[in-house]
Design goal:
There is one protein chain. The longest helix has 26 residues. This protein has one domain. About 20% of the residues are buried. With about 140 residues, the protein is mainly α. About 75% of the residues lie in helices and about 0% in strands. It is built from six helices and no strands. The two termini are about 25 Å apart.
Length: about 140
Amino acid sequence: MTGNYLYWTSTALLSALYLASATMYIAKGDQVRKVIAGLGYPGYLVPVLTTVKLLAVAAVLSRANVALSDLAYAGILYHLLLSGAAHVGVRKSSAGVPAAVGLVLLVTSFMTQNAAREVASPYAPAATHRTTDSALGVS
């Protein structure tokens, strides 16, 4: 039961982080382009990242296809690692805090997904169920 709560809490917070980021990319596109350019990336990545972030959240939450959901987890992992590294690379480590928080949420969500979802991911750890002596018929 704890795994179920951990999964949904971490997944909801990770999704909120990504949806807030995509919303900011849409609402403040010019400012985001300047920040991304300051990190050394081209501004045309803003619409691409916005779309990919929204699709990743949809894939993880809907889990219409387990393989697609796992691919979304991998994409989020690479995005967060590269984002954090880019901020550290330009000596703005404090701007990389959301990426670090996102990594913690991502790992928690991925590691507990099989405890909460009906169709298991072959890459996440298997859900463990504690058995009691009474359930085993041992007195």
